[in-house]
Amino acid sequence: MEKTQKIQIGIVGYGNIGRGVECAISKNVDTELAGIFTRRDPASVQSVSGAKSYRMEELASLKDKIDVLILCGGSATDLPEQGPELAQNFCTIDSFDTHAKIPEYFEAMDKAALAGGNVSIISVGWDPGLFSLLRTYAEAAIPDGNTYTFWGKGVSQGHSDAIRRVEGVKNAIQYTVPIEAAVDAVRSGVQPELTTRAKHLRECYVVLEEGADEEKVRRTICEMPNYFSDYDTTVTYISEEELAANHSKMPHGGFVIRSGETSADTKQLIEFSLQLDSNPEFTAGVLVAYARAAYKMKEKGATGARSVFDVAPTYLMSESAADLRKRVL
User: Fold this and answer.
1) Cβ pair 94, 112 in contact under 8 A
2) Contact of 163 with 112, CB cutoff 8 Å
3) Is 299 exposed, middle or buried (0-12, 13-18, 19+ CB in 10 A)?
């Protein structure tokens, strides 16, 4: 691998997100895929672009050829282990999405990145990520009010991954579904008090391993902390064929609503929304933009962990700040 002027990005893990990152890199004029790193046999990885695959153990020898690693593993078990280890030697981007554990994950990544003199931007995607920023902008503009976030209907990659790691599960997919009555109440401007359970349902479609205990698997899923225990959750057992036929696409979407007042009897409502044909491909687009940001920040001497709150928007774009002001501002 020879270093070029383009930002050299390595992909760690080649699942749905990894394939999405590969597509996103091809859409950005200033980025280039340096390689795919996997725990599998590299020969078994058939990449979309034909990029070379490497064993994870080869990463250390390619340190000088890679500007940023995008970590595409799951939040349940992969990232807590891989993130701090890799941040010691590389700038990293990840989509860690276990909200309750973000503070401790940030601390671990900050310690590792500072030790290695690198920049690691965590919890990048659309939520956490872009929606986190939108909530912040809305609350800054309307300090007297309430913020509501709804997701779906769509496939949650992190939650689906968590189900697939349950003993007895061969394959699975999970849909997050907004409860329409809750959405309507928020849009009316009445600022209802809504519990987590009142806002969303979680629908799980599971293919069992042969001989697995249905009730045990159902109970394990429904009682899983940080994922399902706070929601009304349904578990439906289906065949591998039905999963492939009816649940192979990965759509998603969501919206952030801020409802409040700027003076007596003057109501204001902000709503941001997105609708995605492919959750992983959109998430990957955000990851690559933040990989650019990490590269720029490292070039300016920054080190340590960051979240999306700490990254100036100009760092996300390939064009200069002057061109951005002229074209977009």
Assistant:
1) no
2) no
3) exposed
